[in-house]
């Protein structure tokens, strides 16, 4: 009897939680300007609650709490009304229960049924378990979007709540969902103007992929909070006083850069947290006065601010005169505070702020009932035509979609009178690639309205276009300047990449042969020396020019590396190991068959597989990694932040494995450490002493350049794992003349 009482208490507790959340949803809805339709929302809630009765999420909570949470995001964070709220409450009913779309239509009407049907269709498509492997799935999503934009808005809300509760999922599932979110959902949210949601999706994806780095940045932000707010108060006070004098009603707020944005800047610029200077920005939201345009008043406030602080002449962003395609309007200016620190100030009216926070789509005709002719309307009307020629690869298709999102479009005719849709600004060459990739690659020119025109001719609406081609024609590099569509660009880049790869391979081989004649190998030292000689930056650029016959290495190499009469003392020193490490370098074991127990172990399954470290990002023990099971059942190991891994997570979620390193001290790996500091006599010897004596690490290559009293050194050392790199960097930073030390990570291009 006592067990029954306890069980009933649990059920009662669940009911109380469910009712409390539903009341919170209704409270959110009551605070909007929408017509209050509480009755139909309550009806949808009761129906969904009954349909999901007894079902729980992986976290253990009643399943109905998920649709309620999605509905709350839809109303309070996106700004949609009762139709969208009901659709959000019902979005999983058809997929997870025995109810049909017809049942939904009979109870709630045709429009809600259409949205629920659209959400059900895409749940198993590009956003399902077999994510992105077929272009047809993505076509289905976009076709549904073109019918009703609310489908994708609710889907974004659904993903946002799933990301907020991702902690209950196993790691492999977390990587798959986070990768897909980063690649598909965040860009969609951005394009639809949902900036806070886009930022949160990026942050949550980053948090689950790099928990340690996320925690480190979050901790540093927390430590700086007091100093940051003190600076903000000091900086904002004169602005606040001036705006008050001008008679404006306004709010000032501090906008803190997101953890993901900070990490992205640290990664792309190879700088530590302390050198990210634009963490804080000031946002002004004001109520415009009557009788003057919003634009004029924004510029008046700009003048008032720049009278207090000096503006950066190259960092003014005028999104008022020319709003972004997704509706964003604001005036951004970067000014220097009295302490010499640059701060960005964003100036918006209340209307601009609402669009910036909730997105252009939330102000669409469903909210106001008005039939405007916005860019969003135009795009939705023509998206079906764009889908008639989808990319064969779904990821390329996604790229094309992202590039063309909200672009103004034109209609042109084929010689037979068929209508084709192209983005505004498209050329005759874009048209050729849209018809067929091979036709684009063989295109000689075109006839527009029966007159001969060049490939670069910009098409106008209503043009009739005939493409002229030849089997002897091949794409030329300047063609990339003629095209604007993603398909044409991607096809041309793929062609040139293939040609470049062949030339680079040939160039590497030629250089190795010529260096061998002077007793050298194509190592880091030799390559860097030649890069300096040719005034080039990237080795691939040099190999490419060699492969194309643009550099005379037969004559130049002997000049750069004359055969010495007596071997240089530093080179003799380098040929010996600096440390006493008795482990074999990774080159010596590269032909050994990888052994699972010596490399890493799975965290979520125990199948025997062969592991290979990918060449695109060169992971080493200690790096955050994931595994991708290829067609041969080999697990390719990638760093989590590798761009190749990002696409794999988004495309083949079911093949992603969560990995952790097992034994760190088995083999060594070559890693490059960049050291910068004051060029003082003996400083390089101190660096060598730390590497070889203190840390007993073998050195493979050294390259040091000094300029105007500053030196930059790159040292290729053999390490077992990332902990040895961190320890080495910490020790090197203790040398007084050293300003920065960092690991140079290899990463593939997207």
TrEMBL record:
One Pfam entry name: TGS
GO CC terms, sorted: plasma membrane
TGS domain boundaries: 408-469
One BP term from GO: guanosine tetraphosphate metabolic process
Family listed: Belongs to the relA/spoT family.
Task of the protein: In eubacteria ppGpp (guanosine 3'-diphosphate 5'-diphosphate) is a mediator of the stringent response that coordinates a variety of cellular activities in response to changes in nutritional abundance.
Listed name of the protein: Bifunctional (P)ppGpp synthetase/guanosine-3',5'-bis(Diphosphate) 3'-pyrophosphohydrolase
């Amino acid at each position: 009897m006592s067990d029954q009482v306890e069980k009933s208490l649990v059920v009662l507790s669940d009911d109380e939680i469910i009712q409390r959340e539903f009341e919170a949803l209704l409270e959110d809805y009551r605070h909007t300007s929408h017509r209050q339709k509480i009755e139909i929302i309550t009806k949808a809630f009761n129906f969904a609650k009954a349909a999901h009765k007894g079902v729980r999420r992986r976290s253990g909570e009643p399943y109905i709490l998920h649709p309620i949470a999605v509905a709350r995001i839809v109303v309070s964070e996106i700004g949609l009304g009762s139709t969208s709220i009901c659709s959000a409450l019902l979005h999983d009913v058809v997929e997870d229960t025995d109810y049909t779309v017809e049942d939904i239509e009979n109870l709630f009407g045709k429009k809600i049924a259409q949205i629920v049907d659209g959400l059900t269709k895409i749940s198993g498509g590009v956003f399902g378990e077999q994510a992105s492997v077929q272009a047809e799935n993505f076509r289905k999503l976009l076709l549904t979007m073109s019918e009703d934009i609310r489908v994708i808005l609710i889907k974004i809300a659904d993903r946002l709540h799933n990301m907020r509760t991702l902690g209950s999922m196993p790691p492999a599932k977390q990587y798959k969902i986070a990768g897909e979110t980063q690649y598909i959902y965040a860009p969609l949210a951005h394009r639809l103007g949902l900036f806070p949601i886009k930022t949160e999706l990026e942050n949550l994806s980053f948090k689950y992929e790099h928990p340690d780095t996320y925690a480190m940045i979050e901790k540093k932000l927390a430590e700086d909070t007091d100093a940051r707010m003190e600076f903000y108060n000091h900086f904002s006070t004169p602005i606040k006083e001036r705006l008050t004098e001008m008679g404006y009603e306004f709010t000032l707020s501090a906008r803190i850069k997101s953890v993901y944005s900070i990490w992205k800047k640290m990664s792309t610029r190879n700088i530590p947290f302390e050198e990210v200077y634009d963490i804080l920005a000031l946002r002004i939201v004001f109520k415009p006065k009557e009788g003057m345009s919003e634009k004029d008043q924004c510029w008046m406030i700009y003048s008032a601010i720049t009278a207090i602080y000096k503006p950066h002449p190259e960092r003014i962003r005028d999104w008022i005169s020319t709003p972004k395609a997704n509706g964003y309007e604001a005036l951004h200016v970067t000014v220097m505070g009295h302490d010499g620190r640059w701060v960005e100030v964003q100036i918006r009216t209340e209307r601009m702020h609402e669009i910036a926070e909730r997105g252009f789509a939330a102000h669409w005709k469903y909210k106001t009932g008005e039939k405007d002719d916005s860019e969003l309307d135009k795009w939705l009307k023509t998206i079906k035509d764009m889908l008639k020629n989808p990319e064969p690869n779904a990821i390329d298709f996604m790229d094309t979609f992202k590039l063309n999102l909200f672009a103004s479009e034109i209609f042109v005719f084929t010689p037979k009178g068929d209508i084709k849709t192209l983005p505004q600004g498209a050329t005759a060459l874009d048209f050729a690639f849209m018809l067929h990739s091979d036709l684009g690659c063989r295109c000689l020119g075109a006839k527009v309205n029966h007159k001969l025109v060049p490939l670069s001719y910009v098409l106008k609406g209503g043009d009739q276009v005939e493409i002229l081609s030849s089997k002897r024609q091949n794409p030329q590099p300047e063609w990339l300047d003629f095209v604007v569509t993603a398909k044409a660009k991607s096809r041309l880049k793929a062609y040139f990449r293939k040609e470049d790869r062949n030339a680079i391979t040939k160039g590497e081989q030629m250089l190795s042969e010529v260096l061998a004649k002077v007793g050298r190998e194509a190592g880091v030292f030799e390559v860097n020396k030649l890069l300096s000689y040719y005034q080039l930056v990237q080795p691939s650029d040099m190999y490419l020019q060699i492969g194309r016959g643009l550099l005379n290495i037969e004559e130049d190499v002997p000049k750069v590396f004359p055969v010495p009469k007596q071997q240089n003392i530093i080179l003799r020193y380098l040929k010996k190991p600096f440390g006493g490490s008795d482990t074999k370098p990774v080159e010596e074991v590269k032909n050994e068959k990888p052994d699972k127990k010596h490399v890493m172990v799975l965290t979520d399954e125990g199948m025997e597989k062969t592991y290979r470290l990918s060449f695109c990002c060169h992971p080493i023990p200690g790096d955050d990694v994931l595994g991708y099971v290829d067609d041969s059942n080999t697990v390719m190991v990638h760093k989590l932040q590798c761009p190749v891994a990002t696409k794999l997570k988004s495309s083949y979620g079911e093949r992603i494995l969560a990995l952790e390193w097992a034994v760190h001290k088995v083999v060594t790996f070559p890693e490059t450490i960049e050291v910068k500091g004051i060029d003082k006599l003996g400083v390089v010897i101190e660096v060598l002493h730390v590497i070889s004596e203190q840390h007993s690490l073998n050195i493979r290559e050294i390259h040091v350049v000094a300029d105007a009293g500053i030196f930059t050194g790159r040292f290729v050392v053999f390490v077992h794992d990332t902990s040895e790199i961190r320890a080495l960097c910490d020790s090197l930073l203790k040398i007084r003349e050293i300003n920065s030390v960092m690991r140079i990570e290899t990463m593939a291009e997207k």
